[in-house]
Structures are given as structure tokens and as C-alpha cells.
# Entry
Amino acid sequence: MRVDALWQYPVKTMIGSTMPSVRLGPLGIDGDRLWAIRDLDRGTIANCRSHGSLMQFAASHADDGTALITFPDGRMLSTADPALADVLGEALGIPVEVQALAPASDLEFYRHPPADADLDLMAYLREIFGREGDEPLPDFSKFAPEVMEYETPPGTFYDCYPLMLMTTSALRSMQAALPDSVVDVRRFRPSIVVDTGDVDGHPEFEWSGRRFAIGTAVIEVKNDCPRCASLTKPIAADVPADRAILRHVVRDLGQAVGVYCTVVQPGDVSVGDELVPT
# Structure
């Protein structure tokens, strides 16, 4: 098993870019999710579930330490541009602020805003997870405990755990099961894609609790990654909206694609590095 691709996402929820090599630190890939978009109407940090249209924007690091955001129409603006929030808000149709990571000690920055007193919690959860009819909600015990109180674990902009790993076998198996769908890796937002050769199915589901050396780093697989309505969102002209993918994931894959991981030992990882059980 070898690393097939490494993905870095400078701005939360936006399309990232592949990297030939990365540094894995305690919080995942260095340079990952250093900025996020805050919805000023809701007071929330935008994510794929609630602000799926952001998945049509792309972000990459610039040489000056900022990120360069590419709009769906091809416009490009830097996170340092004072006009970015207004232009982005106009494109999204909501007032927004572009925010850099705050210290982990700033708990109020990351805390969920107070819920609306009239909120139907079950209806809300079914909407953001894209569950239809009698489809079950995911097992919430698979999420980091901080997500119940905070929008993201304090000090980070990732949703749950620092890394999400998936395999080429998983992508190939989903495409075989859904021949009329576009099973594009961008839908799933992995940090690391591992080439598992001609193995069938989703071999990573068997790795929970295991540790792997990868380059000079060591990672630990926590559990499978429950999936939400983000899988159904359009990303580009060649990756349209598609509810069939989520139906397959809920019905046939135990509601999950890929696995969450933590970094046990920081180190450097490159495409082509072998994934070695430890």
C-alpha cells in the first residue's frame, strides 16, 4: 500500500489541491484549514453541510503566506484582500467574514451559537446529514466529543479529527456500484488517498484502532467516517449534484466512506511512500 495522493485544504469547506509531499503535525497536514468563512447571519463557521455552495470555490496557498481563493467564475482573490468578505458574501448571498484560526483557548470563537428555541433538532439533523424517509442518522459516538459543544475542535477548523484517509479501492468500488454517478475524489475531501491495488471494497473499514508508519510519521485510525449531505452537492460542471451517492453510502456502506485518523508521531509524507502497519 502506497500514498496515491495528499490533499491540503487552506480554507475550510473549499476545494483543496494535491501536494507532492506534506508535513504531518499534531493537527494534521501543515497548512491545512488555516482560514474559514463565518456566516454572520447564523453566527456559525461555514461547513460542507450547511454551506455546500462553498465546495465550488477553491483555495491554494500563496508564496506570501496567504491563501488564494478561486471563485466558480474564475475570479481570484487573496485572503489578505480587504474586499474579499464583501465579494464572497455577494456571491454566496449572505454576509460573511473570512477568519483565521484563533487560539484553542478562545473557546467562544469555536462554540456553537445558542440554538433557536423553536428548532426541531431531529429534523435539523436529518437535513444536514441528508437522510431520507426512514434512513438512520449516523452513530454520533464516532465523532470527537468536542463537536457536541463546539463547531470545530478548539484551535482547529477541521470538523472532527485531523485526517481523513480513504483508498483507491473505495473510490473504484463506489464507481462500480454507481455507474451513472460521478464518483470524484473531491466529493469526499480526503487528506490522504492510499493506493490499495486491486483489493475490492473498502479495506480501510478494517483498520480501526491500527497504527501505520507513513514516511517518517505514524498515524492511528480512529474509526470510519460517517457521511452527510455534502456528498450530494455540486462541485463543478463535471461533478454535478447527485443524491444517489449518499443513498448508496447509507444503504450499503454503514453510512461511512473513508476513516478518521490522528497523528501519533509527526513527520514528513510524500506521494509514493509506503503505508506500513506498526
